[in-house]
Specification:
This protein is mainly β and 71 residues long. Helix content is 0%, strand content 61%. It has a four-stranded antiparallel beta sheet, with no helix packed on it.
Length: 71
Protein backbone atom coordinates (compact mmCIF):
# COMPACT_ATOMS: atom_id res chain seq x y z
CA UNK A 1 0.00 0.00 0.00
CA UNK A 2 0.99 3.65 -0.49
CA UNK A 3 1.29 6.21 2.30
CA UNK A 4 2.54 9.68 3.13
CA UNK A 5 4.49 10.73 6.21
CA UNK A 6 5.70 13.73 8.19
CA UNK A 7 8.77 13.36 10.43
CA UNK A 8 9.71 15.86 13.14
CA UNK A 9 12.46 15.72 15.72
CA UNK A 10 15.34 17.40 17.50
CA UNK A 11 18.98 16.32 17.41
CA UNK A 12 21.48 17.14 20.17
CA UNK A 13 25.25 16.77 20.10
CA UNK A 14 26.92 15.68 23.34
CA UNK A 15 29.74 18.17 22.81
CA UNK A 16 29.91 21.36 20.78
CA UNK A 17 31.49 20.81 17.35
CA UNK A 18 32.94 23.95 15.72
CA UNK A 19 30.68 25.13 12.89
CA UNK A 20 27.65 23.09 14.03
CA UNK A 21 24.83 24.13 16.36
CA UNK A 22 24.42 22.12 19.56
CA UNK A 23 20.69 21.47 18.84
CA UNK A 24 19.05 21.13 15.41
CA UNK A 25 15.42 20.70 14.38
CA UNK A 26 14.75 18.04 11.74
CA UNK A 27 11.54 18.10 9.67
CA UNK A 28 10.77 16.04 6.56
CA UNK A 29 7.85 14.87 4.44
CA UNK A 30 7.46 12.25 1.74
CA UNK A 31 5.76 9.21 0.19
CA UNK A 32 6.29 5.56 0.99
CA UNK A 33 5.37 2.06 -0.13
CA UNK A 34 4.77 -1.03 2.05
CA UNK A 35 4.36 -4.54 0.70
CA UNK A 36 3.63 -7.74 2.62
CA UNK A 37 5.20 -10.88 1.11
CA UNK A 38 3.10 -13.44 2.93
CA UNK A 39 2.45 -13.42 6.68
CA UNK A 40 6.11 -13.20 7.80
CA UNK A 41 7.96 -10.77 5.51
CA UNK A 42 7.37 -7.05 4.94
CA UNK A 43 9.30 -4.69 2.66
CA UNK A 44 9.19 -0.90 2.64
CA UNK A 45 10.64 1.98 0.66
CA UNK A 46 10.41 5.68 1.60
CA UNK A 47 11.52 8.92 -0.05
CA UNK A 48 11.96 11.90 2.29
CA UNK A 49 12.29 15.60 1.49
CA UNK A 50 13.62 17.96 4.19
CA UNK A 51 11.35 20.89 5.06
CA UNK A 52 13.90 22.52 7.37
CA UNK A 53 17.49 23.07 6.21
CA UNK A 54 20.10 21.47 8.46
CA UNK A 55 23.33 23.44 8.80
CA UNK A 56 26.30 22.01 6.86
CA UNK A 57 24.16 19.44 5.00
CA UNK A 58 23.80 19.31 1.21
CA UNK A 59 21.21 16.49 1.12
CA UNK A 60 17.97 17.36 -0.64
CA UNK A 61 16.37 13.89 -0.84
CA UNK A 62 16.76 10.87 1.42
CA UNK A 63 15.95 7.28 0.37
CA UNK A 64 15.25 4.53 2.90
CA UNK A 65 14.56 0.85 2.25
CA UNK A 66 14.04 -1.91 4.81
CA UNK A 67 12.89 -5.51 5.14
CA UNK A 68 11.38 -7.18 8.21
CA UNK A 69 11.21 -10.91 8.77
CA UNK A 70 8.86 -11.90 11.60
CA UNK A 71 8.67 -15.33 13.16
Amino acid sequence: YFLGFLDYGHAWDHAQIPGFPLVQTLVGIGPGVRYHFGPYFTGRFDVGFPLHNVQNSSESVRLHASAVLSY
